[in-house]
UniProtKB/TrEMBL annotation:
This is E3 ubiquitin-protein ligase HACE1. GO terms for biological process: protein ubiquitination; ubiquitin-dependent protein catabolic process. The active site is at 636 (glycyl thioester intermediate). PANTHER family: E3 UBIQUITIN-PROTEIN LIGASE NEDD-4, HECT DOMAIN UBIQUITIN-PROTEIN LIGASE. Its EC number is 2.3.2.26. It catalyses: S-ubiquitinyl-[E2 ubiquitin-conjugating enzyme]-L-cysteine + [acceptor protein]-L-lysine = [E2 ubiquitin-conjugating enzyme]-L-cysteine + N(6)-ubiquitinyl-[acceptor protein]-L-lysine. It is found in: Endoplasmic reticulum; Golgi apparatus, Golgi stack membrane. GO terms for molecular function: ubiquitin protein ligase activity. The gene is hace1. Coiled coil: none annotated.
Length: 669
């Protein structure tokens, strides 16, 4: 090998030793480096970027780790500075940690020559930061730095910790090594993000299904699930947004499954704080998560028109079923065929009309219980309607849509129906709402003594003839050989009731499939930890009572009226004299609602804005027409307009007539 002039530089300030260390082919590299060093080439010389030959060697991608480590030893023995900095403030160790060749033997060589494991570059990043951002990082590499006393909580200029970088790394290596070194799981960057924010923002890649496990890891170390970043986002929101943004890829169908499994631990951690709070707080959390899912599912720059739905007022179910796919969280406008008007009042009217039609016994979808208030339960009678499952899927969607739009349905559902939506096990007592006749026959078994029960010859199997198909059903494994006794009678009753209420599996599956289009199973799983069946009933159908004092207290008046105005006083006197059903009808007439807002009338909203119930006075009729005396309403604005009646009797007469005739004036929101 011919002798190379000592420390000659190319236009970039690199010496032959710099170039030898950067050679991609390992063959002969070690010998060349050793020969140049023997010829007196400096191992400390810097190029135009401030890099030494050792810097170049540490950023070289090589297959032979032992060869690279040997080359590094030659340079260090020739007094190469293990802590030299380039113009970006990076040491050789930092470049090595960014390199896929950063395996323990090479790391050990530099650390053995006192490379500063906590050195910071101009961004404030340490070697541990750089390693945690390396896609090839492993637990073993992190352990090498930590054993050399690397600071697991060192923060960069942007207050980013190594755990932030590790969680932002799409390859999602195990974080347990850093967590065992007491890395702060709730460290906050200048952007307000925690490691959990970073993990949830990057887990959505379809190759990162194992990331769900890492979410659980952080939660087990008490990561804050409610921390907001500078954009006001919780980890859940970043997770949802990331998954939906990956939904257009060929692997997009994988996303909902992984999203659901990833949401479950996050939401479960959040709800632990809700068990002892008010119903209003529970409802706000539930609806807030639903709203978060809607916002996350919309692209940041939508290039499509939000869905518009037209339905026939007299045949709502039949006209909506062909448009089932359009009923999504994106739905913004809705209208009735051949009718003018738009806005939230029209949407509220749809829920009223829809609820009335789905309860119509001609469809044989529901039966009404003999309770106060009456409740709808899925019909136990056989049904040959070919559209039954489509109708139930539509009903499931409409229930989810109502929750999303913060609207109450003007019907109450029986416990078995609510439990099915919440995925809660049925009890024997639930059978009373589902099939009262069967319940009465079965509950009578409790009155029998042990001898009488034995004489019945019952066992844990049934001859099921439901829907015209006879089959043998075992309530327990080997049920034909297990006799029913007085001791196991309660188990028999419970299993019998559960089988009966779940016998129409296709119908229940259709109902829940529609419901889950708006309310993912992870949300339901979390909600049932703090929502009782009674809470869920109020969430769907609202509170039964209407507090007139609260209604009056939070009513606003236009410039022509005050609480002391004669017509206004007559109005409230009339409301107080009404029955509960009449008050509900009045509320529907004026606002489109069938129950008071959760939390009271102070929270009256329309189109997601706070719009209080308002009474406006209008002058008497110009023409002698009876309808000029009727009150009118703009449901989108929660506005009731009252003429200046001459007597309380006139007010009561025309208000009652307007409500009965459903003279609802839809004004634009």
């Amino acid at each position: 090998m011919r002798r190379v002039p000592r420390d000659t530089c190319d236009p970039f300030g690199a010496t032959p030793l710099h170039n030898a260390c950067l050679a991609r082919r390992p063959a002969g590299r070690e010998g060349m480096i050793k020969k140049l060093l023997d010829d007196g080439h400096s191992a400390k010389k810097k190029d135009a970027a401030g890099m030494t030959p050792l810097h170049n060697l540490c950023r070289t991608v090589g297959r032979s780790v032992s060869e690279l480590a040997s080359c590094a030893s030659h340079l260090l023995q020739a007094r190469a500075d293990a802590n030299a900095r380039d113009k970006c403030g990076r040491s050789p160790l930092m470049l090595l940690c960014a390199n896929e060749s950063a395996l323990p033997p090479m790391l050990g060589t530099l650390l053995g020559h006192r490379a500063n494991v906590n050195a910071r570059d101009k961004r404030g990043k340490s070697p541990l930061h750089t390693l945690c951002a390396n896609e090839k990082v492993s637990s073993e590499m992190i352990t090498v730095l930590l054993e050399s006393r690397a600071d697991a909580n060192q923060q960069s200029n942007q207050l980013v910790s190594p755990l932030h970088d590790l969680c932002a790394n799409w390859s999602l290596p195990p974080a347990h090594v850093l967590l065992q070194a007491r890395a702060d799981v709730n460290a906050v960057s200048k952007m307000g993000t925690t490691p959990l924010h970073e993990l949830c923002a990057n887990i959505g890649d379809y190759q990162c299904r194992d990331g769900v496990h890492h979410v659980q890891q952080l939660l087990e170390t008490r990561a804050d699930v409610n921390k907001l970043n500078d954009e006001g986002q919780r980890p859940c929101e970043l997770l949802c947004f990331n998954f939906f943004q990956n939904g257009d890829s060929p692997t997009g169908p994988l996303c909902p499954e992984v999203l659901d499994s990833a949401l479950a631990p996050l939401l479960s951690a959040e709800v632990s704080q809700l068990r002892n709070t008010s119903f209003q707080a529970k409802a706000e959390w539930f609806r807030g998560v639903l709203d978060m899912l809607l916002v996350s599912s919309l692209p940041p720059y939508p290039e499509f028109d939000l869905a518009h739905l037209e339905v026939h007022r007299d045949h709502v179910l039949q006209s909506m079923c062909p448009q089932l796919e359009q009923l999504t969280p994106h739905l913004e406008e809705i209208g009735f065929d051949f009718e003018t008007g738009q806005g939230s009042g029209l949407t509220r009217e749809l829920f009223v009309v829809f609820s009335s039609e789905m309860a119509n016994e001609n469809y044989n979808l529901f039966v009404c219980t003999d309770t106060d208030p009456p409740r709808l339960s899925l019909s136990p009678r056989p049904c040959v309607n070919e559209y039954r499952n489509s109708y139930l899927q539509l009903i499931g969607k409409m229930i989810g849509f109502a929750l999303l739009k913060e609207q109450h349905l003007p019907v109450h559902f029986a416990k078995p129906f609510l439990k099915e939506l919440l995925d809660v096990d049925f009890s024997f007592e639930d059978l009373l709402d589902f099939d009262p006749d069967l319940y009465k026959r079965l509950v009578h078994l409790r009155t029998y003594d042990e001898e009488t029960v034995n004489q019945l010859g019952l066992n844990f199997s049934l001859d099921d003839a439901y829907f015209g198909k006879r089959r043998k059903v075992n309530l327990l494994l080997g049920g034909e050989d297990i006799p029913v006794t007085k001791g196991n009678l309660e188990v028999y009753l419970r299993l019998y009731a559960q089988h009966r209420m779940k016998s129409d599996e296709k119908a229940l599956s259709s109902l829940k499939r529609g419901f889950h289009d708006f309310c993912p199973p992870a949300l339901i799983q979390a909600a049932r930890r703090f929502l009782t069946i009674e809470d869920f009933d109020k969430l769907l159908s609202g509170v039964e009572e209407i507090d007139v004092d609260d209604w009056q207290k939070h009513t606003r008046y236009d410039s022509k009226g005050t609480p002391r105005t004669k017509v206004v006083r007559w109005f409230w006197e009339a409301v107080r004299a009404m029955s509960l059903q009449q008050r509900k009808q009045l509320l529907r007439f004026a606002t489109g609602r069938t129950s008071a807002p959760i939390g009271g009338f102070k929270l009256m909203k329309s189109e997601d804005e706070h719009i209080p119930f308002t009474i406006a006075l209008k002058e008497g009729p110009v023409e002698a027409k009876v309808r000029s005396f009727y009150p009118t309403a703009a449901t989108c604005s929660n506005l009731l307009q009252l003429p200046r009646y001459k007597s309380k009797a006139d007010l009561e007469k025309y208000l009652s007539a307007a409500i009965k005739e459903q003279m609802m004036a839809f004004a634009e929101a």
